[in-house]
Amino acid sequence: MSVQRKRCTIKEVAARSGVSVATVSNVLQNKSHLYSPETAERVWQAVRELGYRPSSVARSLIRQRTDTIGVILEERQELVLDPYVMSVLEGILEYTVPRNYPVKIVSMLYQQRPDSFLAHVDDGSVDGVMLVAPRTHSAALQWAQQADIPAVVVGSTLPNTPLPCVDVDDTAAIYRVVRWLIELGHQRIGHIAGPQTQWSAKRRLQAYYQAMQDAGLAVKSEWVVEGRYTPPSGNEAMQQLLNAAPELTAVVCGNDWMAMGAMEAIHQKGLHVPEDISLVGFDDIDTAQWVAPPLTTIRQPMRQIGVKAAEMIIEQIETGKRACEVVLFPAEIVVRQSVAPPR
After folding, report:
1. If I label 100, which of 130, 155, 201, 339 is the partner at 20 to 30 A Cα–Cα?
2. Are residues 272 and 196 both part of a single domain?
3. Taking phi first (over 0 means left), then psi (-120 to 50 degrees means alpha), and beta for anything else, what does residue 147 get?
4. How buried is 169 (Cβ within 10 angstroms: 0-12 exposed, 13-18 middle, 19+ buried)?
5. Distance between CA 192 and CA 229 in Å, rounded?
6. What is the pTM of this model?
7. Distance (Å, rounded) from C-alpha 260 to C-alpha 256?
8. Which domain range does residue 216 map to?
9. Which CATH number covers residue 18?
10. Domain containing 145 — which CATH number?
11. Omega within 30 of 0 (cis) for the link into 274
C-alpha cells in the first residue's frame, strides 16, 4: 500500500528558516522592502530543503484574487468541431498562459437552464469573464452587464452595452464583397444567413441588404435563407435556394462551414461552382482552401481577436477599470476559384 506524502506547510518553512509566517509570505510574494537579502536567502533555502510548494488556494485568499478567467461559450458547436471557437481560444491562451492566468471554460451547449453558467462564474472562482459570441437575448450577457466583475465580449459588437467588445468589422466586409460581386456582373445574389439569435449574423444580413439596396437591386424574400453556422444547415439552405430561386448567380454565406455545405448541395444538383453559381464564405478557416473549388471567403483574424480580448480582460483585472472600448479588426476578401463573372 502506497503512503501519501504529507504536504509541507508554510509554518514548517518559517520554523526551519527562523522567521515568522508573515515574513515567509512576504518573501514568496517578493515584497523585498519588508525583509533583508539575508532573510530571503534563509527562507528560500528552507523552501528548497523542505520541497515547499505554495498553495494556490492560500495565495488566492491572501491576494483576494484567483487569477483565473472564465470563458463562456454560447450557442456554438462542440469545441473540437468549431474552428472559430478553437482559433479564438488559441489566441486567448497564447496571451494568458505566459502571464499565469488559467482559463476556465464554461460551455452552454449541454446546459438546460439559461442561468446555469452562474454556478461556474459567480462563485468567486474567476476574476473576470469573456463571453464568446453571446446570443441576442443572453442571460450571461445580462449578468455581466450588471455584475461588478471585469468582462469582455468576444466575437460580437453589441448596441448600447457598457461592456468592451472585440470583433471583426463584418458589416464592412459583407458590404464590400456584395458590391464586388455586383461589379463582376452579378445582380441576382442570395444570402445564407447565420442564426438570427447571433449578433454577427444579424449584422451580416443587414450589410447584405444595404449593399443590394445601394446598388439599386431589389432582394426577393426567397433569396435569403437562415442557417445555423453548420455544414448541414448550409446544405439545406442551398437546396432551398436552388428550388425556390434558380435564377441566382451568386450566394454569400454567413460562414465557411455553411458555404461548404452549400457547395455540396450545388454539386448534388448537378451544377458547378463557379460556372453555374458563385459562392462566398466568411472566416477563412483552414479547410476553405482545400475544398473543390477552393473557397473565396472573407478572412477574419480569429486568433488575434482572442489575443486582444485576453489583453483587455487582464488589464481590467489588474487596474480595476472597465473601459467601454470597441475594437474592430479589418477583414480581407480572399479571392479563390469559387467566384467568377456570371454567364
Report:
1. 155
2. yes
3. beta
4. middle
5. 9
6. 0.80
7. 6
8. 170-299
9. 1.10.260.40
10. 3.40.50.2300
11. yes
Residue 95 falls within a domain, yes or no? Answer: yes
C-alpha cell at 314: 487582464
In a domain, 5, yes or no: no
Residues 163 and 176 in one domain: no
Q: 298-334 as b/e, with b when 16 or more CB fall inside 10 Å? A: bbbbbbbbbbbbbbbbbbbbeeeebeeeebebebeeb
Q: Are strands 69-73 and 151-154 parallel, antiparallel or unpaired?
A: unpaired
Residue 283, amino acid: D
Tens digits of residue pLDDT in 253-303: 999 999 999 999 999 999 999 999 999 999 999 999 999 999 999 999 999
Do 225 and 251 meet the contact criterion of CB atoms below 8 Å apart?
no
Cell of 212: 443590394
Beta strands in the chain (DSSP E): 69-73, 103-107, 128-132, 151-154, 165-168, 189-193, 224-226, 250-253, 278-280, 297-299, 326-329, 332-334
d(CA 196, CA 215): 24
